Amino acid sequence: xxxxxxxxxxxxxxxxxxxxxxxxxxxxxxxxxxxxxxxxxxxxxxxxxxxxxxxxxxxxxxxxxxxxxxxxxxxxxxxxxxxxxxxxxxxxxxxxxxxxxxxxxxxxxxxxxxxxxxxxxxxxxxxxxxxxxxxxxxxxxxxxxxxxxxxxxxxxxxxx
Length: 160
Known about the structure:
By secondary structure, this protein is an all-alpha fold. It has helices spanning 9-19, 24-45, 60-67, 98-104, 108-159.
């Protein structure tokens, strides 16, 4: 049983249902590991690199497609800490077919990874939209409560 220790536990459970060969915790840990490897490779390629040995990352191009617009990975302003609300933009919206894979010459496991990342992108977008919807509902409810409180206070003041 997967114990939720992150805000996106439902996302990882949905991904695990799609992948079926891994549970939610394994999916989350694998993605965190791959993202950290990507960030190390990205840092190793930057101008401020220390000159250490080249970092190799097999899925760099796939992660570059996903995170190329992510402000956490590529900040436009160094002092900004707010990421783009939808950070997972993919160059393709449709999964890669085997025919397309044969034309690109990429290994089959890259197709599975790309398709899993596309599914992850969809789930994360839906999660972000649902989160925004809940936030708007909460704001609306708070406004109603505040208005009721003001009405009660006005009635009490009239009695005094």
